[in-house]
Amino acid sequence: MANRTETLPAATVEVRRSSGLWGDAFRRLRRNRLAIVGGVLVILFVFIAIFGPYLAPWPYDYQDLDAVLANGGLPLPAFSPGHFLGTDELGRDLLSRLMDGARISMTVALVVQFVVLVIGMPVGAAAAWFGGRTDSWLMRLTDVIYAYPDLLFIILLSVALKETVFGKALDGLLLVFVAIGLTSWVTMARLVRGQLLSLKETEFVEAAQAIGVPSKKIISKHLLPNALGPVIVAVTLGIPGAILAEATLAFISIGATPPRASWGSLVADGQPWLRSFPHLVIFPALAIATALISFTFLGDGLRDALDPKLKGKQ
Amino acid sequence: MGAYLIRRVLWIIPVLFVVSIITFSLMHAVPGGPWSKEKKLPPSVIEHLDQKYNLDEPVFIQYLNWVGPLQFDEGALQRDEADNLVFGGLLAGDLGPSYKYLDRSVNDIVADGIWVTVQLGLMSFILSVIVGIPLGVIAALRHNGIPDYAATFVSIIGIATPTFVASILLLVVFSIALGWFQPNSLDWRTDPSSWVLPVIALSLFPIAQIARYTRASMLEVTRRDYVRTAHSKGVKEGSVVVVHMIRNALIPVVTILGPLLAFLITGSFITEFIFSVPGIGRYYVTSIGQRDYGVIMAMTMLYAAAIAIMNLVVDVLYAYIDPRIRYS
């Protein structure tokens, strides 16, 4: 018998580098065109919000009265020299005011979701963790907040505290941001609670417990990373709601004190001019629309990327 | 199920109680009162008015008076008959006097406008459902086809256009520029065309939401084993879609219908304002500015009750259409 063992070719197995939960999710996100468009627009909005005052052609409250008077006291139309998107009837540059509005809207996104996380996550986690009476009381609290008509609460709170230091912070905006946050954390609390409760029952957590993984490590390695995905998605998808709430309130002149320019108040200011100078309403409306769409696309993309149920189906 | 239902209905009462306390305290924390006007009234007049309407009492007593039969200050409450201020309180179904419209009670104000607001909300709700669901279903059945892109486009418009923007654009384009509709309809009862624009403005966002949810849910269901089984045993395409897919796909959609209906009824105030709809929505904002305490409380309680009841209805409906769900 000849010795034939030497002829076996070496098996070549191509090992795909393990990319982990987040690597996989990012790969899926990159393949989603709408999410990329949304993400790029979000980055653009954030960039304008941060560097807006340096990029804007004019200060947002500067009144180019000469130009308006030369035009017979009427707003300048779009593409006028020096004012790319035109001005309002006071000669204030619309582009610069829209950029200030981006600043307000992105701050809303940030502050509201911060409040939502700071209240919603601990409440939800405490309800799931302690269970029993704590759980039922916390969930009853969420019932009350849930039934409270949101805008009524925000308007009451902002009128009640308007004259205080808190009410005057950030040109009157901080109060509105916090009020919107106070009405929006309930969904987050319920989500976190539901996530933790269902994760506690999963086989991989049970398996980890069975082989003696300490509970600290179970929380940090299994519960939190798995609950984090839905939380990130909820935060992103909650942003359009917050931007919309701020714009709606600004439209009925609650929130930013003039001459600050929220997109909502720009629409309200432009409304009387709508027939002769539609650009005063159309451009702010487009700004709101773009912001709402980009966060929604990004949020949808993140959800698809982070949802393990869809794995392998794309 | 019966016990669950009773528990849920009873639970609405403490929720409304807490809501009323929060509102009452916040409302009285708002500086100024119903008599602060541009033309200042002399202090003696304000004092007299406060006395007449029991606004000189501590807030706590005022709250008890508002609730009703707990009034332990009976003499002060019923007042002299000449003033015609016999106030029964919430539990007696009396929402009290309006401080702005002195000749009318809050009950009158609510009775005048509530059905208009409910009608507007319900019409928008029906429109959203009959447009949104088919839109989502067609988009999913023609996944990545032209109908899908068209439906997605409609959803994007709905998500991107805030109600106030939609309302003013519709008003200016269709009633002022084109003149198809009366801009400020004075005859909401007899002229059905007055409702067209406000209903459309209010429905855009819900249509988009419903279509998005339905589409996602239908796409999820398409991959299920029971759908493949139905196809492979030769069930007709139409009945696979109707019996197997749509029925199952609509279950998650029902969960968002409750919040949407609540949104349509409580969130219509801007639309009412822009189209001058004679509903109660417009008091939502003005009453706070005018410190019209009775109206603020009435609006809060009505809206909170509406939201709580609609959530309950959805939960019950959910168990009805999905027999796998059992409440205990």
Order of helices and strands of chain B: HHHHHHHHHHHHH
CATH first level of the domain at 106-321 in chain B: Mainly Alpha
CATH hierarchy: architecture of the domain at 106-321 in chain B:
Orthogonal Bundle
Per the CATH scheme, the topology name of the domain at 106-321 in chain B is MetI-like fold
Task: State the major sheet of chain A.
Answer: none
The most extensive interface, with participating residues per chain, is: A-B, 38 and 46 residues
Radius of gyration of chain B: 25 Å
Number of helices of chain B: 13
Helicity range of chain A: 55-70%
In the predicted model, the low-confidence regions of chain A spanning at least 5 consecutive residues are 310-314
What is the 3D form of chain B? globular
- Count of helical segments of chain A? 12
Can you say what the CATH homologous superfamily of chain A is? MetI-like
What gap, in angstroms, lies between the N and C termini of chain A? 52 Å
